[in-house]
Structure formats: structure tokens, C-alpha cells
Amino acid sequence: MRLSYVVIWGLLASGTARADVPLEGTWSLGYQTGIMTNQRAHDAINPSKVEFVDNYLLGLLAGYDVPIGDSRFSFGIEFQANMHFGDQGFYEIVVPVVLRYYPEESWWDAFDSFSFGLGGSHYSEISNVEREKYGESRRDLVYWFLEAEFATRNADETIFARIHHRSNAFDTLEPNGGSNAFVVGFRRAF
């Protein structure tokens, strides 16, 4: 049921014009909201296995992207400030670098870009969701996201759906820990 909100948001973008690759550096501001799961990343993306928990996030984000030459790629950085609430309340600061791809032709006109971000995530306190899954965790973990971005009727505004993931990066950090969330958001470029 909750996953259907992502699909509905995507359908609302139908009939829109896709933005092209920016010609120069672009700033953006936005907001996002999501729901946490209690699975590892590979299970969290499997609709038959995903289990949501009573923990949510709501956040603001700011980003800067620059095109990579004449390619269909851009490179950027993003800053997120998220509040987690539900069974446990705490804040999260996330700073990933972002690689974004703008397809020239898409199977769906509203599809604007696909991106991957990698960086760090800091929680103000250790997450109970992570403790319940792994027995322990830590406040600082590696963060990554996978995102699909969709055009709206306004060329400077997009909506997106992403997987919000933090982990110990295959045992690079100790102790083990991590979490996932399904996130939807809105972004405005300027």
C-alpha cells in the first residue's frame, strides 16, 4: 500500500516535458519523506520481502550539479538534514557526491534522470531499527542512494523516488549496522 504512493507520484508526472542535461552548474533545493524497512538492501528492493517499520524520515536537501563535458552525465554534491520519527526520534546529516545520467531517449517521457550518490551519514543517536536488525550499530555509517527523477509541468521542478541506504560498507566499519528507507521527494533547480 505505502509503495503505491511512489507509483502514484510517478503517474502524476505523466504528460510532462523532460529536462535536458544542464549546460552549466545548477543549484537545487528540495524536501523528501520516507519510511524505513528492516531488511538488508537486496531484500528491501524485493517487493515480496519488504517489511516496513514504524520509523519515518522527513528532510530538506540542497545540491549542486555540474555537467561532465558534452556527455549526458553530471557530477555533484548534496547536503541532507533529516528528522527521523515514529518509534524513535533523532536527526540525520548526510553528504553524498552524486553521479547523474540524463537519458537522451526514454521509454517514458516523464523520466528525467537516474542517479547514484555515495557519502557519509551521521545519526544523532544509534538507531533502534539498526540495533534490532544487527544487535548493534553506530552513529556514523557509509551512505548511498539510487534515485529515479521525474519531470513535472515546470521545467525547473522534479519529483524523485530513491532508496536511502546506510551501512558499514561490507565490514569496512565496525560494528556492523545499517538501514534502508524508501523515499520520495521534490526538487527545484535554480
Distance between the termini: 34 Å
In total, the number of strands is 8
Ranges where pLDDT stays below 50 over 5 or more residues in a row are 3-15
Q: Strand order, biggest sheet?
A: 1-2-3-4-5-6-7-8
Question: In percent terms, what proportion of residues is strand?
Answer: over 45%
Structural class, from helix and strand content? mainly beta
- Which overall shape is indicated by the principal axes computed on the Cα atoms? globular
Question: Number of helical segments?
Answer: 3
Major sheet, described briefly? 8 strands, antiparallel, barrel
What is the element string, with H for helices and E for strands? Answer: HEHEEEEHEEE
User: Helix coverage percent of residues?
Assistant: 10-25%
Radius of gyration: 17 Å
User: What is the typical, i.e. mean, pLDDT?
Assistant: 85
Write the layout of secondary structure elements.
Elements: H1 4-12, E1 26-37, H2 41-44, E2 52-67, E3 73-86, E4 90-101, E5 111-123, H3 128-134, E6 140-151, E7 157-167, E8 178-189
Antiparallel strand pairs: 1-2, 1-8, 2-3, 3-4, 4-5, 5-6, 6-7, 7-8
Question: Can you describe what's shown?
Answer:
There is one protein chain. With 190 residues, this protein is mainly beta. Helices cover 11% and strands 54% of the residues. It is built from 3 helices and 8 strands; from the N terminus they run H-E-H-E-E-E-E-H-E-E-E. It has helices at residues 4-12, 41-44, 128-134, and strands spanning 26-37, 52-67, 73-86, 90-101, 111-123, 140-151, 157-167, 178-189. The chain has an 8-stranded antiparallel beta barrel. It is globular, with a radius of gyration of 17 Å. The N and C termini lie far apart (34 Å).
